[in-house]
Amino acid sequence: KQEVTQIPAALSVPEGENLVLNCSFTDSAIYNLQWFRQDPGKGLTSLLLIQSSQREQTSGRLNASLDKSSGRSTLYIAASQPGDSATYLCAVPAQGAQKLVFGQGTRLTINP
Amino acid sequence: DAGITQSPRHKVTETGTPVTLRCHQTENHRYMYWYRQDPGHGLRLIHYSYGVKDTDKGEVSDGYSVSRSKTEDFLLTLESATSSQTSVYFCAISEVRAGTSGSLPYNEQFFGPGTRLTVL
């Protein structure tokens, strides 16, 4: 059974710092990995999706990497801003491509 | 914006009453999902649909039923609501797409805004 773990559960950093969020999964035979952002009281917003043969994806100040052999993904946020404060979740498919298994998320706070 | 709406957005009901939540999409996506999100448990899949009248259970399906009579609508019903079903409910949609550059098929999910349900 696929399990996804995100460490740390919460992170607080000053504005302007570069930071890394971690995601690990137990079954490396994944089709893809997806990173989401969730603001308080809101739904999930898809940030990046890394396909099975890809090593990384970039969008603006965000860079997600994938190492299937070690069961790990990282989300790198450059030059953090207070507006980046949110909960970040990663998810991988289970039992084929149709269903996702989510980590518990990392709650990120960027202090001005 | 993946064209997903959920209704109602907030609902307070009493134990034992039936409740139906609606998810509506405008882009004819094949797959639709219902999740619940609770502190300490994260997001958990309740039911999902892979086409009209085609549904399957997720990991926390007890006490819930679903129906999909049209591509665009996926209904979640609590036949007799209990306090343990107080939660935030999210609908999601996806398509399985062919991978690029040697990748396997992938499934990118997009989420609706959520429904906050309180069962007293």
Characterise this structure.
The complex is a heterodimer of chains A (112) and B (120). With 112 residues, chain A is mainly β. Chain A is built from no helices and 11 strands. In chain A, strands 2, 4, 5, 9, 10 and 11 form a 6-stranded mixed sheet that branches. A 5-stranded antiparallel sheet of chain A has the order 1-3-8-7-6, with no helix packed on it. In chain A, a hairpin with a 4-residue loop joins strand 7 and strand 8. The model of chain A has no long low-confidence stretch (mean pLDDT 93). Chain B has 120 residues and is mostly beta strands. Chain B is 0% helix and 60% strand. Chain B has no helices and 11 strands. Chain B has strands at 4-7, 10-13, 19-25, 31-38, 42-51, 54-57, 64-70, 73-78, 87-97, 106-111, 115-119. In chain B, the strands form 2 sheets. In chain B, strands 2, 4, 5, 6, 9, 10 and 11 form a 7-stranded mixed sheet that branches. In chain B, strands 1-3-8-7 form a 4-stranded antiparallel sheet, with no helix packed on it. Classes of the chains: A mainly beta (112), B mainly beta (120). The A-B interface holds A 31-32, 34, 36, 42-46, 49, 51-54, 89, 91, 93, 97-100, 102-105 and B 31, 33, 42-43, 45, 48, 50, 58, 90, 92, 94, 96, 99-114.
Question: What is the secondary structure topology, with strand pairs?
Answer:
The complex is a heterodimer of chains A (112) and B (120).
Chain A: E1 4-7, E2 10-14, E3 19-25, E4 32-38, E5 44-51, E6 56-59, E7 62-67, E8 72-77, E9 86-94, E10 99-102, E11 106-111
Parallel strand pairs in A: 2-11
Antiparallel strand pairs in A: 1-3, 3-8, 4-5, 4-9, 6-7, 7-8, 9-10, 9-11
Chain B: E1 4-7, E2 10-13, E3 19-25, E4 31-38, E5 42-51, E6 54-57, E7 64-70, E8 73-78, E9 87-97, E10 106-111, E11 115-119
Parallel strand pairs in B: 2-11
Antiparallel strand pairs in B: 1-3, 3-8, 4-5, 4-9, 5-6, 7-8, 9-10, 9-11
